[in-house]
Design a protein that fits this description.
Elements lengths: L4 E5 L3 H11 L4 E5 L2 H10 L6 E5 L7 H8 L7 E6 L4 H9 L5 E4 L4 H68 L5 H31 L7 E4 L10 H9 L4 E4 L5 E4 H18 L6 E8 L2 E9 L5 H4 L22 H10 L6 E5 L2 E9 L1
Parallel strand pairs: 1-2, 1-3, 3-4, 4-5, 7-9
Antiparallel strand pairs: 6-8, 9-10, 10-12, 11-12
Helix pairs in contact: 2-3, 5-6, 6-10, 7-8, 8-10
Length: 367
């Protein structure tokens, strides 16, 4: 391993020789007996220089003046000043102009000096390492920015290149429905339509997540009041509730709050659909809203199977599937992920907790 290089400067040759003997086992020691000679040495030796140790009182050029001249060419190098004079003005000047690491008086204690130099060299290499890490982080940040741009471009591509042919498929399928088909053909056509609808919904869900996560979704906040859920129950939710004979119990505080109406309704509808989908037949879904110091809290509680803890830890990750994908199960899909992304841009998040007989999903719209 290459020895670190240090430079010792003192107008008394015995002093620089003494410093060389003290440090030569651990360091590559450069010696100079004046500031001018030291600057010439720095020009000749372009390798990394860990530390400069210089005397203050020297003819022609003081130690502080010499150190000040090295700042531009060796900004990363640490600097130490040795002097037999301890006037406060020299100390202040050394700190301000020479940017010294330590100020030591003569005669020096060899043990203390060796320890101080070792610390300085260690700090120098830590600084170099930190600089390299910062450069790596800067590069990584630029790569992330590039990836983020590529991600946005990819989503634009998906939006156009997938939705355009998909629209054609659905349009021609609609035309086929108007023609005379036998039962088998009708069944095949319905499967095509169902699959196309699923793909269309998937594309729209993915785009919605990406817009929310990349800040492309703009909020249009307005004053809202939730007095009843009835206007917001979609035909699909109502159908699920009827099929499973699930009633909804409303415990709503008609408190005004601010949110994007379109986005808030979408969150509420997705959570209600999820509760109905996984709720036990005949068991109610309870929906609460409670006003508090943090804002308006909504709770949706369904009676049904609990969610394993390891699943709760992952369930809000995009595209998480908690079932065997080879069996073509839909799992929890994107519904809760979308809710989390949409709530996040409102300054809220989704909390999922198991209860004795089911699952409680909670979020708070900030006051």
């Amino acid at each position: 391993m290459t020895k670190p290089t240090i430079l010792c400067v003192d107008d008394e040759k015995d002093n620089v020789d003494s410093l060389e003997r003290l440090f030569r086992k651990k360091y590559n020691v450069l010696k100079a007996t004046s500031g001018k000679e030291a600057l010439s040495l720095l020009d000749q030796h372009r390798e990394s220089l860990a530390l400069i140790i210089t005397d203050q009182r020297m003819p022609e050029m003081t130690g502080i003046e010499f150190l000040e001249k090295t700042l531009e060419s060796r900004p990363e190098t640490l600097r130490m000043l040795l002097t037999g004079y301890t006037d406060l003005e020299s100390v202040i000047s050394a700190v301000n102009k020479g940017q010294i690491y330590r100020y030591l008086t003569k005669p020096w204690d060899p043990v203390d000096l060796v320890h101080t130099v070792d610390q300085a060299v260690e700090r120098f290499f830590l600084g170099i390492e930190l600089k390299e890490k910062n450069a790596q982080l800067t590069k990584a940040l630029e790569e992330l920015k590039s990836l983020d741009k590529a991600k946005s471009n990819f989503m634009i591509l998906i939006n156009h290149e997938l939705k355009t042919p998909l629209t054609s498929i659905l349009n021609f399928a609609s035309l086929l429905k108007e023609t005379k088909l036998d039962p088998d053909q009708n069944q095949y056509l319905q499967r095509i339509v169902n699959s196309a609808d699923r793909l269309k919904n998937l594309i729209e869900d993915v785009l919605l997540i990406m817009k929310a996560e990349t800040g492309q979704l703009r909020l249009d906040k307005q004053n809202l009041v939730v007095k009843t859920l009835e206007p917001w129950l979609t035909p699909e939710i109502q159908k699920l509730l009827q099929q499973k004979a699930i009633p909804i119990e409303e415990h709503l505080t008609p408190k005004e709050f601010q949110a994007d109406r379109r986005i808030f309704i979408q969150v509420l509808q997705r959570l209600l659909h999820n509760a109905a989908k996984y709720g036990n037949p005949g068991q109610p879904i309870a929906v609460h809203s409670e006003s508090g110091a943090q804002g308006l809290t909504f709770k949706i509680i369904n009676q049904g199977p609990q969610i394993p803890k390891q699943v709760i830890d992952k369930i809000l990750q995009p595209f998480f599937i908690d079932e065997n994908i080879m069996n073509h199960s839909t799992g929890f899909g994107l519904g809760l992920t979308i809710c989390e992304s949409l709530l996040k841009i409102h300054g809220a998040d989704l909390q999922i907790q198991n209860q004795m007989n089911g699952v409680c999903v909670t979020f708070t719209i900030p006051a």
